[in-house]
Design goal:
By secondary structure, this protein is of the alpha+beta class. The protein folds into 2 domains: 108 residues; 140 residues, Phosphorylase Kinase, domain 1 (2-Layer Sandwich). The chain is 46% helix and 20% strand. It has a 7-stranded mixed sheet, with helices on both faces. A hairpin with a 2-residue loop joins strand 6 and strand 7. Helix 4 runs antiparallel to helix 5. The chain is globular and about 70 Å long.
Length: 264
């Protein structure tokens, strides 16, 4: 399967609309093609941004009828074989989507989310954060079980392209339990497992930058976002990003993220 065919099928693939054999063909191609991996990440990130922008948005009552009418008109013209008409159909759909997203962004700008503990709220949502939630909620077993940070660092030495120094806490209730390798997006990340007050906490270390056009995620600052019922504090140190989440309260996670000693 060529990249050009993946381009045409990527939307149906993400929506699960392909037949099983085609889904398998697309998955095999993407696994072996860095270019299509990046395209998949971009497409999913764009859709996530659109979904976030539309949350709680109530478009004008007659907007839907106007969009459907415009699309219906362009479809009738396209059926007569006009290339320009087919292009107009795509333009109408894109313009409609842009209008709705714009309404969502405008409404959010008028009522920004409050910041707690002077923390920065990450925006836009990130597929990296979605993946961290999936990693934690899956409760995957550790590749290496160790409580000494040096043992964890040694395990990752030849497995990732960056040095892994586990987060260290002065709180005696926080215990390092182990670690594993796991892909996050198109790169491999280090996943560290901790136990806090008898509950699981996961810290993902990656050299990927989170999309943050607001510029709020600054060196050493704790930012966070709520994803799928979990709070995810994020700290950027040097070229590394530490992402926390777990089965504990938000305040506990924020406290851990603020107090963690992180290596550059």
């Amino acid at each position: 399967m060529k990249c050009e065919l993946i381009d045409r099928r990527i939307g149906a693939y993400i929506d699960g609309e392909l037949d099983p054999m085609s889904m398998l063909d697309v998955e095999r191609h993407i696994e072996a093609c860095a270019r299509c991996q990046e395209m998949l990440v971009f497409e999913e990130r764009f859709r996530g941004l659109v979904r976030e922008s539309l949350e709680g948005v109530e478009p004008p009552r007659n907007l839907k009828a106007q969009i459907l009418s415009s699309i219906d008109s362009s479809e009738r013209k396209a059926a007569r074989g006009s290339l320009a008409a087919r292009a107009a159909q795509v333009f109408v759909a894109a313009a409609s989507l842009t209008l709705i997203v714009g309404i969502g962004l405008q409404q959010r700008a008028l009522s920004p989310e409050p910041l707690a503990f002077h923390e920065a709220s990450l925006s836009p949502p990130s597929l990296v954060l979605d993946e961290v939630v999936r990693i934690h909620s899956s409760a995957l077993p550790a590749d290496v079980r160790a409580q000494a940070p040096s043992e964890i660092s040694h395990y990752f030495r030849d497995k990732v392209s960056f040095p892994v120094q586990p987060a260290v806490f002065d709180d005696g209730e926080v215990r390092l339990m182990g670690a594993r390798l796991h892909p996050v997006g198109s790169r491999t990340a280090a996943v560290l497992y901790y136990e806090v007050e008898g509950r699981r906490v996961t810290v993902v270390v990656t050299d990927r930058d989170l999309p943050d056009p607001t510029g709020r995620l600054r060196e050493g600052e704790v930012a966070y976002r709520d994803v799928g019922g979990y709070t995810l504090p994020v700290v950027k140190v040097g070229r590394l990003t530490y992402i926390f989440t777990g089965d504990v309260e938000r305040e506990t996670l924020l406290r851990l993220a603020r107090s963690a000693r992180l290596a550059r």
